From TrEMBL:
Domain ERCC4: 2-266
Main location: nucleus
Ion transport in keyword set: no
Organism listed in the record: Sphenodon punctatus (Tuatara)
Similarity comment: Belongs to the EME1/MMS4 family.
Keywords tagged on the record: DNA damage, DNA recombination, DNA repair, Nucleus
CDD domains xrefs: XPF_nuclease_EME2
Name of the protein in its database record: Essential meiotic structure-specific endonuclease subunit 2
SMART domains xrefs: ERCC4
A biological process term (GO) from this entry: mitotic intra-S DNA damage checkpoint signaling
Pfam families, alphabetized: EME1-MUS81_C
Compartments (UniProt record): Nucleus
Length: 319
Protein backbone atom coordinates (compact mmCIF):
# COMPACT_ATOMS: atom_id res chain seq x y z
CA UNK A 1 0.00 0.00 0.00
CA UNK A 2 1.39 3.37 -1.07
CA UNK A 3 0.02 6.78 -0.05
CA UNK A 4 0.31 9.26 -2.93
CA UNK A 5 0.31 12.92 -1.90
CA UNK A 6 0.12 16.03 -4.04
CA UNK A 7 3.05 18.44 -3.52
CA UNK A 8 0.58 21.20 -2.70
CA UNK A 9 -0.06 19.57 0.67
CA UNK A 10 3.53 20.19 1.74
CA UNK A 11 3.27 23.94 1.25
CA UNK A 12 1.54 24.25 4.63
CA UNK A 13 3.83 24.19 7.65
CA UNK A 14 1.41 21.85 9.42
CA UNK A 15 2.18 19.11 6.91
CA UNK A 16 5.05 17.96 9.12
CA UNK A 17 2.46 16.24 11.33
CA UNK A 18 1.21 14.28 8.31
CA UNK A 19 4.71 13.15 7.35
CA UNK A 20 5.40 12.05 10.93
CA UNK A 21 2.15 10.08 11.07
CA UNK A 22 2.92 8.25 7.84
CA UNK A 23 6.45 7.56 9.04
CA UNK A 24 5.20 6.07 12.30
CA UNK A 25 2.91 3.71 10.34
CA UNK A 26 5.91 2.38 8.40
CA UNK A 27 3.92 2.58 5.18
CA UNK A 28 5.20 3.65 1.79
CA UNK A 29 4.36 7.12 0.57
CA UNK A 30 5.31 9.21 -2.41
CA UNK A 31 5.00 12.87 -3.34
CA UNK A 32 3.74 13.15 -6.89
CA UNK A 33 1.41 15.59 -8.67
CA UNK A 34 -2.22 14.47 -8.52
CA UNK A 35 -5.08 15.28 -10.88
CA UNK A 36 -6.70 17.25 -8.06
CA UNK A 37 -4.57 19.80 -6.22
CA UNK A 38 -3.89 19.06 -2.54
CA UNK A 39 -5.32 15.56 -2.75
CA UNK A 40 -4.31 12.13 -1.47
CA UNK A 41 -4.83 8.81 -3.25
CA UNK A 42 -3.84 5.25 -2.46
CA UNK A 43 -2.23 2.58 -4.65
CA UNK A 44 -1.96 -1.15 -4.03
CA UNK A 45 0.52 -3.54 -5.63
CA UNK A 46 -1.39 -6.38 -7.31
CA UNK A 47 -0.16 -9.43 -9.31
CA UNK A 48 0.07 -8.68 -13.01
CA UNK A 49 -1.45 -12.07 -13.89
CA UNK A 50 -3.90 -14.55 -12.40
CA UNK A 51 -1.17 -17.07 -11.66
CA UNK A 52 0.69 -15.79 -8.61
CA UNK A 53 4.25 -17.08 -8.27
CA UNK A 54 7.31 -15.89 -6.40
CA UNK A 55 8.98 -13.10 -8.30
CA UNK A 56 6.00 -12.46 -10.56
CA UNK A 57 5.68 -8.81 -11.65
CA UNK A 58 3.34 -6.54 -9.72
CA UNK A 59 1.30 -3.64 -11.00
CA UNK A 60 0.08 -0.67 -8.98
CA UNK A 61 -3.69 -0.26 -8.98
CA UNK A 62 -5.24 2.95 -7.70
CA UNK A 63 -7.92 2.66 -5.04
CA UNK A 64 -11.28 4.39 -5.37
CA UNK A 65 -10.84 6.74 -2.40
CA UNK A 66 -9.70 10.33 -3.02
CA UNK A 67 -9.17 12.73 -0.12
CA UNK A 68 -9.10 16.43 -1.05
CA UNK A 69 -7.91 19.20 1.27
CA UNK A 70 -9.76 22.49 0.73
CA UNK A 71 -8.76 25.81 2.27
CA UNK A 72 -11.47 27.52 4.39
CA UNK A 73 -11.61 30.63 2.20
CA UNK A 74 -11.89 28.51 -0.94
CA UNK A 75 -14.66 26.39 0.55
CA UNK A 76 -16.70 29.45 1.58
CA UNK A 77 -16.15 31.09 -1.81
CA UNK A 78 -17.43 28.03 -3.66
CA UNK A 79 -20.32 27.67 -1.25
CA UNK A 80 -21.35 31.28 -1.83
CA UNK A 81 -21.24 30.73 -5.61
CA UNK A 82 -23.47 27.69 -5.28
CA UNK A 83 -25.99 29.65 -3.22
CA UNK A 84 -26.06 32.48 -5.73
CA UNK A 85 -26.82 30.14 -8.65
CA UNK A 86 -29.15 27.79 -6.74
CA UNK A 87 -32.14 30.12 -6.93
CA UNK A 88 -32.22 29.86 -10.75
CA UNK A 89 -31.96 26.07 -10.95
CA UNK A 90 -35.13 23.96 -11.39
CA UNK A 91 -35.78 21.51 -8.57
CA UNK A 92 -35.69 18.48 -10.84
CA UNK A 93 -32.31 19.25 -12.44
CA UNK A 94 -30.21 19.25 -9.28
CA UNK A 95 -27.45 21.71 -8.26
CA UNK A 96 -24.23 22.35 -10.13
CA UNK A 97 -21.82 20.80 -7.69
CA UNK A 98 -18.76 21.84 -9.67
CA UNK A 99 -19.20 25.28 -8.14
CA UNK A 100 -18.43 24.00 -4.67
CA UNK A 101 -16.24 21.00 -5.45
CA UNK A 102 -12.70 21.53 -6.75
CA UNK A 103 -13.22 18.86 -9.43
CA UNK A 104 -15.36 18.31 -12.50
CA UNK A 105 -15.75 14.55 -12.65
CA UNK A 106 -18.12 13.97 -9.74
CA UNK A 107 -21.27 14.16 -11.82
CA UNK A 108 -19.94 11.86 -14.51
CA UNK A 109 -19.47 8.11 -14.53
CA UNK A 110 -16.47 8.17 -12.21
CA UNK A 111 -16.34 5.39 -9.64
CA UNK A 112 -14.11 7.39 -7.33
CA UNK A 113 -15.27 8.06 -3.79
CA UNK A 114 -14.40 11.67 -3.01
CA UNK A 115 -14.27 13.23 0.43
CA UNK A 116 -13.32 16.79 1.32
CA UNK A 117 -11.47 18.01 4.40
CA UNK A 118 -11.53 21.61 5.58
CA UNK A 119 -9.02 22.52 8.29
CA UNK A 120 -9.60 25.52 10.53
CA UNK A 121 -12.94 26.77 9.21
CA UNK A 122 -14.17 27.91 12.64
CA UNK A 123 -10.93 29.77 13.37
CA UNK A 124 -11.00 31.39 9.93
CA UNK A 125 -14.57 32.62 10.37
CA UNK A 126 -13.89 33.87 13.90
CA UNK A 127 -10.81 35.82 12.80
CA UNK A 128 -12.59 37.52 9.91
CA UNK A 129 -15.62 38.39 12.02
CA UNK A 130 -13.29 39.90 14.60
CA UNK A 131 -11.58 41.92 11.86
CA UNK A 132 -14.97 43.17 10.66
CA UNK A 133 -15.86 44.39 14.14
CA UNK A 134 -12.54 46.21 14.38
CA UNK A 135 -13.08 47.88 11.01
CA UNK A 136 -16.48 49.18 12.07
CA UNK A 137 -14.83 51.14 14.87
CA UNK A 138 -12.44 52.89 12.46
CA UNK A 139 -13.76 56.17 10.99
CA UNK A 140 -14.04 56.32 7.23
CA UNK A 141 -11.63 59.25 6.99
CA UNK A 142 -8.94 57.12 8.65
CA UNK A 143 -8.81 54.56 5.90
CA UNK A 144 -11.47 52.03 6.76
CA UNK A 145 -11.02 48.83 4.79
CA UNK A 146 -13.40 48.00 1.96
CA UNK A 147 -16.46 45.85 2.57
CA UNK A 148 -15.57 42.27 3.49
CA UNK A 149 -15.95 39.45 1.01
CA UNK A 150 -19.60 38.39 0.65
CA UNK A 151 -18.74 34.73 1.23
CA UNK A 152 -17.92 35.56 4.85
CA UNK A 153 -21.63 36.12 5.46
CA UNK A 154 -22.43 32.43 4.92
CA UNK A 155 -24.32 31.12 7.95
CA UNK A 156 -24.00 27.78 9.72
CA UNK A 157 -27.40 26.71 8.42
CA UNK A 158 -26.33 27.39 4.84
CA UNK A 159 -23.19 25.33 5.37
CA UNK A 160 -25.24 22.41 6.71
CA UNK A 161 -27.62 22.64 3.74
CA UNK A 162 -24.62 22.49 1.40
CA UNK A 163 -23.32 19.38 3.19
CA UNK A 164 -26.66 17.64 2.69
CA UNK A 165 -26.64 18.66 -0.97
CA UNK A 166 -23.15 17.26 -1.47
CA UNK A 167 -24.08 13.97 0.16
CA UNK A 168 -27.33 13.50 -1.75
CA UNK A 169 -26.31 14.72 -5.20
CA UNK A 170 -22.56 14.09 -5.23
CA UNK A 171 -22.17 11.22 -2.73
CA UNK A 172 -19.41 13.28 -1.17
CA UNK A 173 -18.74 13.86 2.49
CA UNK A 174 -17.09 16.90 4.06
CA UNK A 175 -15.05 16.65 7.25
CA UNK A 176 -14.26 19.75 9.30
CA UNK A 177 -11.11 19.53 11.40
CA UNK A 178 -9.30 22.01 13.62
CA UNK A 179 -5.64 21.01 13.25
CA UNK A 180 -3.25 19.15 11.01
CA UNK A 181 -2.78 16.59 13.78
CA UNK A 182 -6.43 15.60 13.42
CA UNK A 183 -6.03 15.49 9.65
CA UNK A 184 -2.98 13.23 10.02
CA UNK A 185 -4.92 10.85 12.28
CA UNK A 186 -7.75 10.74 9.73
CA UNK A 187 -5.32 9.87 6.92
CA UNK A 188 -3.80 7.13 9.09
CA UNK A 189 -7.21 5.61 9.83
CA UNK A 190 -8.19 5.68 6.15
CA UNK A 191 -4.88 4.08 5.15
CA UNK A 192 -5.34 1.21 7.60
CA UNK A 193 -8.94 0.65 6.52
CA UNK A 194 -8.05 0.60 2.80
CA UNK A 195 -5.12 -1.74 3.43
CA UNK A 196 -7.34 -4.25 5.29
CA UNK A 197 -10.17 -4.17 2.75
CA UNK A 198 -9.13 -7.22 0.64
CA UNK A 199 -8.70 -9.33 3.79
CA UNK A 200 -12.11 -8.34 5.15
CA UNK A 201 -13.70 -8.93 1.74
CA UNK A 202 -12.22 -12.42 1.55
CA UNK A 203 -13.19 -13.08 5.15
CA UNK A 204 -16.82 -12.31 4.35
CA UNK A 205 -16.90 -14.96 1.62
CA UNK A 206 -15.74 -17.77 3.92
CA UNK A 207 -18.36 -20.07 5.44
CA UNK A 208 -19.05 -19.20 9.07
CA UNK A 209 -16.78 -16.16 8.82
CA UNK A 210 -18.12 -14.96 12.17
CA UNK A 211 -16.33 -17.87 13.88
CA UNK A 212 -12.82 -17.25 12.56
CA UNK A 213 -10.12 -18.62 14.82
CA UNK A 214 -8.26 -15.74 16.42
CA UNK A 215 -9.75 -13.15 14.08
CA UNK A 216 -12.74 -12.18 16.19
CA UNK A 217 -12.89 -11.23 19.84
CA UNK A 218 -15.74 -13.70 20.49
CA UNK A 219 -14.25 -16.59 18.54
CA UNK A 220 -13.34 -19.75 20.45
CA UNK A 221 -10.62 -22.22 19.51
CA UNK A 222 -11.71 -25.86 19.78
CA UNK A 223 -8.98 -28.48 19.89
CA UNK A 224 -9.24 -31.99 18.47
CA UNK A 225 -9.53 -33.43 21.97
CA UNK A 226 -12.65 -31.32 22.61
CA UNK A 227 -10.99 -28.59 24.65
CA UNK A 228 -12.93 -25.40 24.17
CA UNK A 229 -16.29 -26.99 23.37
CA UNK A 230 -17.89 -25.80 26.61
CA UNK A 231 -16.61 -22.26 26.04
CA UNK A 232 -18.05 -22.35 22.51
CA UNK A 233 -21.38 -23.51 23.95
CA UNK A 234 -21.34 -20.64 26.43
CA UNK A 235 -20.58 -18.16 23.67
CA UNK A 236 -23.45 -19.59 21.63
CA UNK A 237 -25.84 -19.05 24.54
CA UNK A 238 -24.68 -15.44 24.77
CA UNK A 239 -25.94 -14.82 21.24
CA UNK A 240 -29.47 -14.73 22.61
CA UNK A 241 -30.81 -11.26 23.21
CA UNK A 242 -30.46 -9.94 26.78
CA UNK A 243 -28.24 -12.81 27.97
CA UNK A 244 -25.27 -11.86 30.12
CA UNK A 245 -22.07 -13.84 30.59
CA UNK A 246 -23.27 -14.96 34.03
CA UNK A 247 -26.57 -16.26 32.66
CA UNK A 248 -24.85 -18.18 29.87
CA UNK A 249 -22.35 -19.63 32.35
CA UNK A 250 -25.14 -20.80 34.66
CA UNK A 251 -26.90 -22.66 31.84
CA UNK A 252 -23.62 -24.15 30.59
CA UNK A 253 -22.81 -25.32 34.12
CA UNK A 254 -26.16 -27.10 34.42
CA UNK A 255 -26.00 -28.56 30.90
CA UNK A 256 -22.37 -28.57 29.70
CA UNK A 257 -23.27 -29.37 26.07
CA UNK A 258 -26.22 -28.99 23.68
CA UNK A 259 -26.66 -32.76 23.52
CA UNK A 260 -27.12 -32.98 27.29
CA UNK A 261 -29.73 -30.25 27.11
CA UNK A 262 -31.57 -32.11 24.34
CA UNK A 263 -31.54 -35.28 26.44
CA UNK A 264 -33.07 -33.34 29.32
CA UNK A 265 -35.82 -32.07 27.02
CA UNK A 266 -36.60 -35.65 25.91
CA UNK A 267 -37.10 -36.71 29.53
CA UNK A 268 -39.78 -34.05 30.05
CA UNK A 269 -43.32 -35.44 29.74
CA UNK A 270 -45.06 -32.25 28.58
CA UNK A 271 -44.22 -29.26 26.44
CA UNK A 272 -44.77 -26.95 29.40
CA UNK A 273 -42.03 -28.74 31.32
CA UNK A 274 -39.67 -28.27 28.38
CA UNK A 275 -40.48 -24.58 28.11
CA UNK A 276 -39.76 -24.05 31.82
CA UNK A 277 -36.84 -26.45 32.15
CA UNK A 278 -34.20 -23.72 32.55
CA UNK A 279 -36.32 -21.15 34.39
CA UNK A 280 -35.27 -22.20 37.93
CA UNK A 281 -31.50 -22.15 37.30
CA UNK A 282 -29.87 -19.73 39.75
CA UNK A 283 -27.68 -16.91 38.45
CA UNK A 284 -25.38 -14.82 40.64
CA UNK A 285 -25.58 -11.19 39.49
CA UNK A 286 -22.35 -9.28 38.95
CA UNK A 287 -23.55 -6.06 40.58
CA UNK A 288 -24.33 -7.16 44.13
CA UNK A 289 -23.64 -10.90 44.11
CA UNK A 290 -27.28 -11.79 44.78
CA UNK A 291 -28.83 -14.79 43.09
CA UNK A 292 -31.81 -14.74 40.79
CA UNK A 293 -33.42 -17.18 38.40
CA UNK A 294 -33.01 -17.50 34.64
CA UNK A 295 -36.74 -16.98 34.28
CA UNK A 296 -39.38 -18.41 31.93
CA UNK A 297 -38.70 -16.02 29.03
CA UNK A 298 -35.12 -17.10 28.35
CA UNK A 299 -36.02 -20.73 29.09
CA UNK A 300 -38.72 -20.55 26.42
CA UNK A 301 -36.40 -18.97 23.85
CA UNK A 302 -33.66 -21.54 24.36
CA UNK A 303 -36.12 -24.41 24.01
CA UNK A 304 -37.64 -23.00 20.82
CA UNK A 305 -34.17 -22.52 19.33
CA UNK A 306 -33.18 -26.09 20.15
CA UNK A 307 -36.42 -27.79 19.17
CA UNK A 308 -38.08 -25.77 16.42
CA UNK A 309 -37.69 -26.71 12.75
CA UNK A 310 -39.05 -23.39 11.49
CA UNK A 311 -36.13 -21.20 10.25
CA UNK A 312 -38.34 -18.08 10.25
CA UNK A 313 -39.50 -18.44 13.84
CA UNK A 314 -39.11 -15.27 15.90
CA UNK A 315 -37.66 -16.27 19.25
CA UNK A 316 -37.78 -12.90 20.98
CA UNK A 317 -41.29 -11.53 20.56
CA UNK A 318 -40.40 -8.44 22.62
CA UNK A 319 -37.47 -7.38 20.42
Amino acid sequence: MTVCMDPGLLEDRGSDALMEALGSMECKYCITPQILPCSITWKRNMPDSLSVTDGSPLKAEEEDEVLVLVEPWDFLKRLFSLMQSGSNVPLWSGPDLTQILPLNCLEGDSTKAYSLVVIGLDAYQWYNQHQERQQVLIPEDQGRREDPSPQLSVTQQEIEEALVMLQLWGNTGVLFLDTWQEFSQHVSVMTKAIAKRPYKKQLGTLPFSFCTDGGWSSGVRVEKDGTGLREAWRKQLQQFNRVSCAMAEAIAAAYPSPSLLLQAYEKCSTKKERLLLLSDIQVKTEENGKERQIGPDLSRRVYLCMASTNPDLVLDISA
